[in-house]
């Protein structure tokens, strides 16, 4: 029969792709191994958003080849799409499959004798080995492909809580620092019927919270040819009109999920500021089944740097969106991605960002240091910021983020919050996640995947502590 192991790197979208690859390989009769050292086929599903992500993938290849020299190592994902020949030359690599063909990875592996064919047909895919490289490569122009891998991925290793469903992939933006459009292609959406089928299955399996994710989630539906049909008297009239007539919007998908499924709680992952319309804010605020949590990428609050980044909003527009979200949902967690050390970022630019963040109601930040990516416009820009300066700016914002998180949490002491039990039980307490995205320890050893209400007593470290009411 054979066995496989999939190791994922990077974002939720990559993890969702990995879950779909596991489904493919299982369909060919392979069994899932518990670790890479025990598998006959090891798939590394890579990220390439930073140079350190590439380094992590290469280190994993070396490690797996050392501990399991007989394994067939298949490398796929964003790094494989960007630099296939580079990966092909590495010792231990047996096959490189870019994102362009990731939806057929098991087929391609079967056609090369890596996995049993069973009754399935070998792929009609050209597999080549570049001169001087040892592993075959299957990669084509990502913009020529429209497929979207989709399978739920779970928050914990034993798959008991918070399934994550990718409903959108790719991006039509061209931010000067970002390699993602070049390795994931144009924005494309999972049709609403497939989304609803996945949600129904997860609800039938008892899951209480579902996370919707995508590379540019707020653009869901713009590429689909027909509108989401109304589930009730709601809908229809909310659609935008473009050159080809009415088109879907992300809010139409949310309405369809809430109207046509019984999912208890829906959490929205990262959505760009220009997609947080007044209508979406009001809808999220009004629904008790949408988690009070908004992640809104910022990157910089310097107008000059945002323009160099080719971001599609200005600081005052971003601030307006955040203030409107906060006014509509005052207890919501609001988070942002922030990049420091972008080429040309001066001390004054960074100070604009720091002051901007300080005055806005953020509860957490994801702070990144700029990493030059070959093939991006910013890689050729002058005025690259010295590494030590960028790291100091990163430290400053992380300290600010910790202060803001503490102030956010303090307002809930003595209050009651809804939460979902997770899988970690320690010292007679169970880890939970609140609807507004806070880690909360509650007294008692409770089963995972249970919705509850808890009264908050205090803060320990970075977590709230309370008891079930």
Describe this structure in words.
By secondary structure, the protein is of the alpha/beta class. The protein folds into 3 domains: 3-144, Methylthiotransferase, N-terminal domain (Rossmann fold, 3-Layer(aba) Sandwich); 164-410, pyruvate-formate lyase- activating enzyme (Alpha-Beta Horseshoe); 416-468, OB fold (Dihydrolipoamide Acetyltransferase, E2P) (Beta Barrel). 31% of the residues lie in helices and 23% in strands. It contains 13 helices and 20 strands. The protein has a 6-stranded parallel β-sheet, with helices on both faces. A 5-stranded mixed beta barrel has the order 16-17-18-20-19. It has a 4-stranded mixed β-sheet with strand order 8-7-9-12. Helix 7 runs parallel beside helix 8. The radius of gyration is 23 Å and the shape is globular. Mean pLDDT is 88; it is low at 116-127, 155-159 and 232-239.
């Amino acid at each position: 029969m054979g066995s496989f192991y999939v190791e994922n790197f990077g974002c939720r979208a990559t993890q969702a792709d990995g879950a779909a690859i596991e489904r493919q390989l299982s369909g060919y009769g392979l069994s899932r191994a518990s670790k890479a050292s025990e598998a006959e086929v090891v798939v590394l599903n890579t990220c390439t958003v930073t140079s350190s992500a590439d380094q992590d993938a290469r280190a994993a290849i070396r490690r797996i080849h050392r501990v399991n020299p007989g394994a067939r190592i298949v490398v796929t994902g964003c790094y494989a799409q960007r630099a296939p020949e580079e990966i092909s030359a590495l010792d231990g690599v047996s096959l490189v499959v870019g994102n362009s063909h990731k939806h057929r990875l098991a087929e391609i592996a079967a056609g090369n004798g890596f996995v049993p064919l069973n009754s399935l047909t070998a792929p009609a895919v050209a597999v080549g080995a570049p001169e001087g490289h040892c592993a075959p490569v299957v990669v084509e122009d990502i913009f020529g492909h429209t497929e979207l891998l989709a399978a739920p991925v779970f928050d914990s290793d034993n798959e008991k809580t918070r399934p994550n469903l990718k409903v959108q992939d790719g991006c039509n933006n061209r931010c000067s620092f970002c390699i993602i459009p070049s390795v994931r292609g144009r924005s494309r959406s999972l049709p609403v019927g497939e989304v609803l089928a996945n949600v129904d299955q997860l609800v039938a399996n008892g899951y209480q919270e579902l996370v919707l994710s995508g590379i540019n989630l707020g653009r869901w539906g713009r590429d689909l040819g027909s509108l989401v049909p109304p589930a009730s008297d709601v809908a229809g009239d909310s659609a935008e009109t473009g050159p080809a007539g009415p088109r879907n919007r992300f809010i139409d998908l949310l309405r369809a999920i809430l109207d046509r499924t019984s999912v208890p709680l829906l959490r929205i992952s990262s959505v760009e500021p220009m997609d947080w319309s007044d209508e979406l804010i009001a809808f999220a605020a009004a629904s008790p089944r949408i988690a009070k949590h908004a992640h809104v990428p910022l990157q910089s609050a310097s107008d000059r740097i945002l323009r160099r980044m080719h971001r599609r909003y200005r600081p005052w527009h971003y601030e307006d969106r955040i203030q409107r979200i906060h006014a509509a949902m005052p207890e919501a967690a609001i988070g942002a991605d922030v990049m420091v050390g972008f080429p040309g970022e001066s001390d004054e630019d960074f100070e604009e960002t720091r002051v901007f963040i300080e005055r806005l109601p953020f509860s957490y930040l994801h702070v990144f240091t700029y990493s030059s990516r070959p093939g991006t416009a910013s890689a050729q820009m002058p005025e690259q910021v010295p590494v030590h300066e960028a790291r100091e700016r990163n430290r400053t914002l992380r300290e600010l983020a910790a202060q803001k998180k503490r102030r956010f949490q303090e307002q809930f002491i003595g209050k009651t919050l809804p939460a979902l039990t997770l899988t970690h039980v320690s010292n007679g307490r169970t880890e939970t996640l609140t609807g507004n995205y806070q880690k909360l320890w509650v007294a008692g050893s409770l089963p995972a995947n249970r919705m509850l209400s808890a009264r908050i007593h205090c803060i320990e470290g970075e977590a709230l502590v309370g008891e079930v009411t």
